[in-house]
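Below sits our specimen:

——
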Amino acid sequence: MLSSILFYSLDKAIRQYRRMAQANIDQAGVAITIDQWLVLRVIQETDDLTQTEIAERVFKDQASVARIIRLLLERGLLSAEPLPHDGRRTQLRVTPEGLRTLEAVEPVVLNNRAKALQGLSENDLNTLRFLLEQIAGNCTSAPDEVSGG
């Protein structure tokens, strides 16, 4: 039965959270998707990343991140400034409009997290964080030669 598979339950929780989070952002009247918000937030935190590095941080493929960045540029939430030492690259920066969007989404995000984590103690959260990091670490090690994955 699928419900007995841990990764099925994990994926279900993530998908339910994203669905709830997006609905609450939409209800707040902020015109941004979760993925757009993630990219904007990553760029706000570190504005000298390549698209590949952004994609790795938001767990998306490069093509999806390129589309999101193009859309954020078109909407004026990001700007792209040519790098003087490398004419092939630009530096992405969050615009004042992008900052206003991030500020508008912040209370919604905090509320979403509080709702999703309701009833979990700090100890529960620390244990969950530790276990998820352990699983992630296990998945980044070399492939299992015996079972083939």
The mean pLDDT is 92. Residues 52 and 62 are 6 Å apart (CA to CA).
